Amino acid sequence: MNNNKAVVVFSGGQDSTTCLVQALTQFDEVHTITFDYGQRHLQEIEVAQQLAQQLGVTAHKVLDVGLLNELAISALTRDSIPVANELMENGLPNTFVPGRNILFLTLAGIYAYQIGASTVITGVCETDYSGYPDCRDKFVRALQQALELGMDRPLNLSTPLMWLDKAETWALAAQYQALELVRDNTLTCYNGIIGSGCGECPACTLRANGLNHYLSNRDHVNAELKRKQAN
């Protein structure tokens, strides 16, 4: 097991790209893993491949998990379901894919086991997010414990963005001189438009509001980011 080797769960979006840029400065060897689950915009797989190559990761794996598409009915797995701004009756967005992060982090943990990596990095966030229950710190810590027990070895599920809001995530990208890369080349939009996106879906709104807040309050946001990094 190599403590200087990490696996980044990588979708080619703002959050995972920011995590990847940071990981490349912290680990000697960085692998990325992208999941093909029949998502609404398969273009994100191409974006992830391009970014992984551009940033020079050690290896990039695309894993077919199409079974998730059959089991998890969501606006992100069914073109026939429009992305809605309103919450469903259960209080969750209709873009929530049940079990997605359970599956992704478990498979990433298995991959880390096979290549001898001690860390799996994911860009989930509880502070400024879409309301997905599998993005919460409590969930990640519980799954880490389960994976460690199930594979009988230490594994760190690292969540660098967990307590950052979107403005602070932009500040983190800027800290690694990657703001323009993330702004112009990542795919966060639920409608599959690279960069600034469609400007209308919930993902684009969250992303744009965070960027505008960062650019308008750069000193304050940077100071808050440094405070959180020091804790």
Order of helices and strands: EHEHEHHEHEHHHH
Question: Poorly predicted ranges (pLDDT <50, ≥5 residues)?
Answer: none
Give the fraction of residues assigned to helices: 40-55%
| Tally of separate helices | 9
Q: Give the tally of β-strands.
A: 5
Rg, Å, rounded: 17 Å
Q: Main beta sheet, described?
A: 5 strands, parallel
Q: Name the average pLDDT.
A: 87
Strand content: 5-15%
- Based on secondary structure, the structural category is alpha/beta
Question: What's the shape?
Answer: globular
Strand numbers in spatial order across the main sheet = 3-2-1-4-5
First-last Cα distance: 28 Å
Descriptors for this entry?
13% strand, alpha/beta, 5-stranded parallel β-sheet, 46% helix, 9 helices, globular, 5 strands, 231 residues
Describe the 3D structure.
The chain is globular. It has a 5-stranded parallel sheet, sandwiched between helices. The protein has helices at residues 14-26, 43-55, 67-71, 100-115, 137-151, 166-175, 179-185, 202-216, 218-230, and strands at 2-9, 29-36, 59-64, 117-121, 156-158. Strand 4, helix 5 and strand 5 form a beta-alpha-beta unit. By secondary structure, the chain is of the alpha/beta class. Helix 1 packs parallel to helix 6 and helix 8 packs across helix 9. The mean pLDDT is 87.
